[in-house]
């Protein structure tokens, strides 16, 4: 496990701390012909060796270097201006997954994924987390539809899909607070949201919008809390 942590540390240093913005822009412009791409990849290999401080693991460092270069090239050629955020997230996920798989391959760690997926606790955790994201957003949207239709649309006053992602994040926060036994943090989160959101709405005297957001917030928090209680009942 210590080796895996060191590999992730090397990735974070190489991809975020030691990669200037000018390198990123040049890579996006010149792609495979950019010298900065190969310098960046070489830097990753050197960092892996230095942080591991075990030169016998050079095959692992070389494999990570090659995997990193392949993933970066895929992103550079596949991403478009409108999909840069999506490809940034995909790029980081692929890097972490490749590091994990390479670590498993070179350290001969025995991981029984079949047994892991047979655990009710892990399966319920994965299921409930997924449920609290897009599925719950769709459920709330349908439950609140009759009220949302009566509220005038104001697209210039809100970021696109901001409400959906705020709801997903708050449900995941509430769920994590409950499963870790920190109920007081749920109250703090609700109070913080009330201060930031409902204060402005009260001043603007938008009663319908205030009531709509209040109902949505309470439903969102309620679903997250029930999900946390379901996880407790399954895991205990």
In short:
With 236 residues, this protein is mostly helical.
Rg on CA atoms, Å: 23 Å
How many helices does DSSP assign?
12
Question: Beta fraction of the residues?
Answer: under 5%
Secondary structural class: mainly alpha
Main sheet properties: none
> What low-confidence regions span 5 or more consecutive residues with pLDDT below 50?
none
End-to-end distance: 28 Å
Shape annotation: globular
In round numbers, the mean pLDDT is 87
Order of helices and strands: HHHHHHHHHHHH
Question: Roughly how much helix do the residues carry, as a percent range?
Answer: over 70%
Estimate nothing, just give the exact number of structural domains: 2
Number of strands: 0
Question: How is this structure best described in words?
Answer:
The chain has 236 residues and is an all-alpha fold. The protein folds into two domains: 2-107, no CATH class; 115-235, no CATH class. Helices cover 80% and strands 0% of the residues. The protein contains twelve helices and no strands. It has helices spanning 2-17, 21-30, 35-52, 58-78, 84-107, 113-117, 120-131, 134-143, 145-148, 162-179, 183-204, 207-235. Helix 2 (21-30) crosses helix 3 and helix 11 (183-204) packs antiparallel against helix 12 (207-235). The radius of gyration is 23 Å and the shape is globular.
Give me some keywords for this one.
single chain, 236 residues, mainly alpha, 2 domains, 0% strand
Ordered list of secondary-structure elements with their pairings:
Layout lengths: L1 H16 L3 H10 L4 H18 L5 H21 L5 H24 L5 H5 L2 H12 L2 H10 L1 H4 L13 H18 L3 H22 L2 H29 L1
């Amino acid at each position: 496990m210590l080796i895996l942590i060191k590999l992730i540390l090397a990735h974070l240093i190489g991809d975020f701390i030691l990669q200037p913005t000018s390198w990123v822009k040049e890579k996006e412009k010149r792609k495979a012909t950019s010298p900065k791409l190969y310098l960046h990849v070489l830097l990753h290999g050197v960092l892996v060796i230095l942080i591991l401080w075990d030169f016998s693991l050079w095959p692992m460092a070389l494999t990570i270097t090659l995997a990193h270069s392949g993933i970066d090239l895929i992103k550079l050629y596949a991403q478009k201006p409108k999909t840069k955020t999506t490809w940034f997230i995909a790029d980081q996920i692929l890097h972490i997954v490749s590091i994990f798989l390479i670590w498993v391959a070179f350290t001969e760690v025995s991981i029984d994924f079949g047994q892991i997926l047979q655990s009710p606790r892990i399966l319920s955790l994965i299921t409930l987390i997924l449920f609290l994201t897009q599925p719950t957003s769709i459920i709330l949207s349908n439950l609140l539809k009759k009220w949302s239709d009566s509220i005038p649309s104001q697209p210039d006053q809100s970021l696109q899909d901001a409400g959906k992602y705020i709801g997903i994040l708050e449900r995941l926060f509430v769920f994590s607070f409950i499963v870790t036994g920190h109920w007081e943090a749920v109250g703090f989160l609700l109070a913080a949201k009330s201060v930031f959101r409902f204060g402005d709405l009260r001043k603007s005297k938008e009663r319908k919008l205030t009531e709509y957001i209040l109902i949505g917030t309470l439903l969102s928090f309620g679903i997250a809390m029930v999900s946390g209680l379901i996880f407790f009942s399954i895991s205990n």
